[in-house]
Amino acid sequence: MTRQAKQSAPPADDSTGVPHILTFDVEEYFQVEAAADGGTRPEQWDSFEKRLAPCVERILRLLSDHGASATFFVLGWVARHERDVVRMIAKAGHEIASHGMYHGMLGNLTPEQFRCELLDSRGLLEDISGNPVVGFRAPTFSITHKTAWAIDVLAEAGYKYDSSVFPIRHDRYGVPDAPRFAHRAVGPGGGEILEIPPLTLRAMGMNWPVGGGGYLRLLPVWFVVKALKKAEKSKHAGMIYLHPWELDPDQPVLPMSRLARWRHRVNLERTEQKLQRMMRDFKFLGVSQSMHTLTTNAKQTYSYGSPGQS
């Protein structure tokens, strides 16, 4: 199979435009990869102040105020220790998906460990929410060519879609030549799953990240709006991702490198304003609500190669 196939034009949409996709990675501020690099370990997590629930409540109010829906990729640790957060999201009618158990990058797991995390997190989330869990996002977008085996494991575990590939160049993650929009991802063992990357903007021969996290906080909002409009014009849904802790500028400062602290905290006080602007200007849905359109428009197939491929 060739790495990348020519994409056919998706069917035309109606005059209301293409609804975009809004997602949240539900984790505490002390569970991010930058905190782990600074020495914070899972066995210490219980000792930190938990600040997640008020942030999720604020997000749910914003979604309700704007008539928007979203998908929440919930960490298994959160499901186990803060069950009311999961119940709150499910009660509001939003999709629950898996973010793994302990926020470990896939390169630090074996396929069997990953399989166990998928099963454990799905079991917890389904038990609490009462709804099926069919989607997954790896911590730190850590499906790359080297961890492409994860696609096979996801397919074997019965997941319907994944959102773990960022088609950019980055020092931690990224598959820069991967398709920019929803496509069929194929693992080295032939497993196949719908892959939905975060929003990027193509310019100067490169994919520029704009769809969430520190990129969204750093960039002016008009630039993100431009990328959404460009995706909409091509009849593609742009995926935006955020974290609840990004609406919490008063969160404690954790030990991190100077660069990591800047990435983690830059413009936290502007996140909510930018989110409101996007929800005012565009229609947002969760992944499962958009599955028919995403599957229909996923004309491209991409093989992520074998483990160890660079």
Task: Please describe the topology of this protein.
Elements: E1 20-26, H1 33-37, H2 52-66, E2 71-74, H3 76-81, H4 83-91, E3 95-98, H5 111-129, E4 135-136, H6 149-156, E5 161-162, E6 183-186, E7 192-195, E8 200-203, E9 206-209, H7 213-218, H8 221-233, E10 239-242, H9 258-265, H10 271-281, E11 284-285, H11 291-297, E12 301-303
Parallel strand pairs: 1-2, 1-10, 1-11, 2-3, 4-5, 5-7, 6-12
Antiparallel strand pairs: 6-7, 8-9
Keywords:
single chain, 310 residues, TIM Barrel, 5-stranded parallel sheet, 5-stranded mixed sheet, globular, disordered N terminus, disordered C terminus
Gist of the model:
This protein is 35% helix and 14% strand. The chain is α/β, with parallel strands linked by helices and 310 residues long.
